[in-house]
Design a protein that fits this description.
3-stranded antiparallel sheet; 361 residues; globular; alpha/beta; 3-stranded parallel sheet
Length: 361
């Protein structure tokens, strides 16, 4: 392969649901540095597929704030809302596959012939995509959240529904979502493993840790899990940087990616492996994650208060473990000193309190 084939392609992928806050800047800075320190490129993607949550003009605020911080990007800005045809194409491909076909495409480590249980017996083929008619109340009543992140595991109610009956309900217009099936316990492909630049080796048992997640919601909106999997593949992204709350999601996204590359009609045959880096979260002094929903230290407020971009970057660089003190610094000056090992040296979630915020005054 030549240099172009192996170049790092990172991405900054904000949701335009409000102004960027310190937690967003911290993650964006890490993503930008992760690519630039390797001589790679940075793509900007506006994740506006969930239109009811989009705030008017938030995309422009985000781009203005990134430019103010000195975090540039390469190529045109990509909007998820303009890629719905691509997501439909991906769904059509996935609908034509079975769980067994995708597992087989993983090779000897994860695959078996379609319909082969691995022990010489034959089992019914499980469609990769199936309709789910359960309400949220139904799912909550039949499930228990996993410890730590509150992720609710789908109990699989509609997975075993008679296919003819399921198709009849869809034709009748019954409200439904679409789910992607994962291999059953102990079946080929049921365990996902990957290395994370911050948290090290990761292993997720898909049926126990994630289950069959929604890929198209009952209101017709494509889910985050499917949209980002399609986008990263189509855009050639091979370095993903984001918060540790999405470590679990990486397991299902790798399964979706495998489905998109499997079968004769796979659209992403030449996709490169992805390097993953999940960051400790940034919390407020009250222990809650910094969030746009709580209006936590957004850049509009900080800029109105007179904070400089160097002060904001310096604070975020300190939170990442890249500098010894939270002092003003230019983003570009951090490129040569950036190393993932510095971030990985402290995996505890960060806390931003009033004393720390005084550096932005």
């Amino acid at each position: 392969m030549d240099q172009a084939d192996t170049a790092v392609v990172g991405r900054i992928a904000p949701s335009p649901t409000g102004r960027m806050h310190l937690g967003n800047v911290y993650a964006a800075l890490a993503a930008w540095l992760g690519a630039r320190a390797s001589g790679g490129v940075v793509r900007l993607r506006i994740e506006d597929i969930d239109r009811p949550r989009v705030v008017a003009d938030a995309d422009r605020w985000i781009m203005d704030d990134l430019a103010w911080l000195g975090l540039d990007w390469d190529g045109p800005v990509v909007y998820q809302s303009q890629r719905e045809g691509l997501y439909r194409q991906a769904m059509e491909h996935l609908e034509g596959l079975s769980v067994e076909e995708v597992a087989a495409s993983l090779g000897p480590a994860g695959g078996a012939e379609t319909g082969d249980s691995g022990d010489g017996s034959k089992q019914d083929v499980q469609p990769l995509i199936y309709p789910c008619f359960c309400s949220r109340a139904d799912i909550r009543a039949a499930s228990a959240p996993n410890e730590g992140d509150g992720f609710i595991l789908y109990p699989g109610t509609c997975r075993g529904l008679d296919r003819a009956l399921a198709q009849e309900r869809v034709r009748e217009g019954r409200r439904h979502a679409w789910r992607i099936a994962v291999p059953g316990e102990g079946r080929p492909g049921s365990v996902c493993r990957f290395d994370d630049a911050v948290y090290g080796a990761q292993t997720f048992d898909l049926p126990h840790a994630l289950g069959d997640v929604v890929v198209v919601r009952s209101d017709g909106i494509v889910s985050y899990q499917l949209a980002v999997s399609v986008d990263d593949l189509e855009m050639g992204v091979n370095q993903v940087v984001r918060g540790r709350d999405l470590l679990r999601s990486t397991g299902i996204q790798l399964w979706i990616r495998q489905g998109l590359q499997a079968g004769a009609g796979g659209d992403f045959k030449q996709a490169q492996p992805v390097s993953w880096a999940h960051l400790p979260l940034v919390d407020g002094a009250d222990g809650r994650r910094l969030s746009k929903r709580f209006g936590s230290l957004d850049l509009g407020t900080l800029r109105d208060r007179g904070s400089s971009p160097q002060q904001v970057v310096g604070l975020c660089a300190w939170l990442l473990g890249l500098v010894p003190r939270a002092e003003p610094v230019e983003a570009a000056s951090l490129v040569e000193r950036f190393e993932w090992s510095a971030v990985a040296a402290d995996r505890q979630d960060r806390v931003v309190d009033e004393e720390l915020l005084s550096v932005l005054a």
